Amino acid sequence: MEKKLKVGVLGATGMVGQRFITLLADHPWYEVTTLAASPRSAGKTYEEAVGDRWKMTTPMPEKVKNMIVHNVNEVEAVASTVDFVFSAVDMSKDEIKAIEEAYAKTETPVVSNNSAHRWTPDVPMVVPEINPEHYEVIKYQKERLGTKRGFVAVKPNCSIQSYAPVLTAWKEFEPTEVVATTYQAISGAGKTFKDWPEMEGNIIPFIGGEEEKSEQEPLRLWGKIEDGVIKKATSPIITTQCIRVPVLDGHTAAVFVKFAKKPTKEQLIEKLRNFSGLPQKLELPSAPKQFIQYLEEDNRPQVSLDVNFENGMGISVGRLREDTVYDYKFVGLSHNTLRGAAGGAVLSAELLTAQGYITAK
Prior knowledge:
- Keywords: NADP, Oxidoreductase.
- One of its GO terms (molecular function) is aspartate-semialdehyde dehydrogenase activity.
- InterPro entries: ASADH-related (IPR051823), Asp_semi-ald_DH_pep-lack (IPR005676), NAD(P)-bd_dom_sf (IPR036291), Semialdehyde_DH_NAD-bd (IPR000534), Semialdhyde_DH_dimer_dom (IPR012280).
- Belongs to the aspartate-semialdehyde dehydrogenase family.
- The chain has 361 residues and is an alpha/beta fold.
- The chain folds into two domains: 5-157 and 342-354, Rossmann fold, CATH 3.40.50.720; 160-335, Dihydrodipicolinate Reductase, domain 2 (2-Layer Sandwich), CATH 3.30.360.
- Helix content is 27%, strand content 22%.
- Helix 1 packs across helix 12.
- It is globular.
- The mean pLDDT is 97.
């Protein structure tokens, strides 16, 4: 790319906003030129606004420290400085829907990490390796919004990344029933052990809204565009439990699957290892070369060994074996703030840029 696109980060002071900033610090296509957050942060330098709440393990990039934070609610002012924005705002769902559409109506594409628009019928919710064709619904969304280049695109929940890609790789064997229990890291709640000490040595068997997302969102990924909207798939039937565990980064899933066409274990492993998509074909900057790795050892995948596979953008799978009730069971692992959050959104933006949906203003 001859000239880098100018990017804004909405909700720049929160954990996902911070992750966006670290990922974009040396990005070959994008340059962060504008940071926006709540009115209480507006007018301060980014370093002042974040204060002692920097949650990343790497230092705050020098180039953003002295940037003045904008008020995220001053939509026209922020939008006028950028080609597109990443959204990680912390508001109610209705407020998020309204502000993301407001940015889109200024002809500014919005790539969102938030859940607010995941079920808006003409908003694509995409894992770039799984359903890039859903971006075709953007033309219908633009008609509704009355825009020429502005739109909203989202990525799905972090919890499904450890098993939805696996089930997609096995699509030809027709999974019919899935039982998944996810063991979810505390960074998924925007926390570290420093600010959530009661999670040390603890497990919480409830994460609000997570089970519904984990059961329904994969079906939307596998849906089809009909009459200008995305209609979700009707199978497989998925039931889940979601548990918060004392791990900083990395969501693990223990999954049971029943198939209409029963494959061999060797066929399943071969499909995982060979599964790739458009990001790999296009060699997008954030795309993992190997999307899914299969680990033969009985004690893998492990968070401490495998969460950063392919810079946190790959999925790790192990313990695939036949089951006495279902056909097969396995364990999956994904990085929830990289593949599952900001990294997945950056990869989505790269694909949208490669396909001409995001351009310089």
